[in-house]
Amino acid sequence: MSLNTQKSLHIAQVLTEALPYIQRFSGKTLVIKYGGNAMVDEDLKNNFARDVVLLKAVGINPIIVHGGGPQIGDLLSRIGIKSQFINGMRVTDTETMDVVEMVLGGQVNKSIVNLINSHGGRAVGLTGKDGGLICAEKLQVSNNSDDPAINVSEVIDLGHVGKVKSIDTSVIDMLIHSDFIPVIAPIGVGENGQSYNINADLVAGKIAEVLQAEKLILLTNTTGLLDGNGELLTGLNAKQVNDLIEEGVIHGGMLPKIGCALDAVQAGVTTAHIIDGRVQHAVLLEMFTDEGVGTLIRGGWQ
Known about the structure:
The protein has about 300 residues and is of the alpha/beta class.
């Protein structure tokens, strides 16, 4: 058997394995939070764009919500504005918010749209301000003192950092039914027209909840959720995840992502996935193969 024949047979086997998954998910909605290495490495960027186009071609409706923290930091540095973080969140005054909107809603959003379109897709870029998509409100953060003698909870003003108040999916529904791929920057608008910078994981989770999506996929720079021995946990229900949080196995920077995934599955999203965006074609591997490349979380307490 020639090498070309072996390669062709391998491709046929891959397609055969993928077929049941394609049939199961055709017509379903998939919300992907896109960020990390997958968003800066050129090969990974091109693979992601092709994967999204393929998903749409086989009848799945992908919706992309993207971050852009490093790109925001780079531009702020170039124009002489120092980035300040509290509890991992960027302090966003009015001047910084202007940069956030320029980078997220302009540079980053349009580069993703262009990349998807260059691979044969039909992507449209949005921010949460378009069509009233994301109604936001100011995020209040408390900084509790570690000193028991003080016993004071200080409310920290992060400026234009927000949280999702409500989602109006009208513009997303219109784009999906017109065979477009929505690409959404996580910027919301307040009742008085203020712009708010919102965590992209949270926006992706809330959109998945409102749309009752089949899957929420969060791309990360880790292999997924690990147990106490550093081994990958591949399939968990809500109870198991809560137990891991109480045991301290899940901690630090992974907690917000896990919380977002838990909220989504408990609100009706069928499954949430935390996957390694550093792996080539990570989304397709998680969607269409038996093994997957990350941690799957489903609702339920048994």
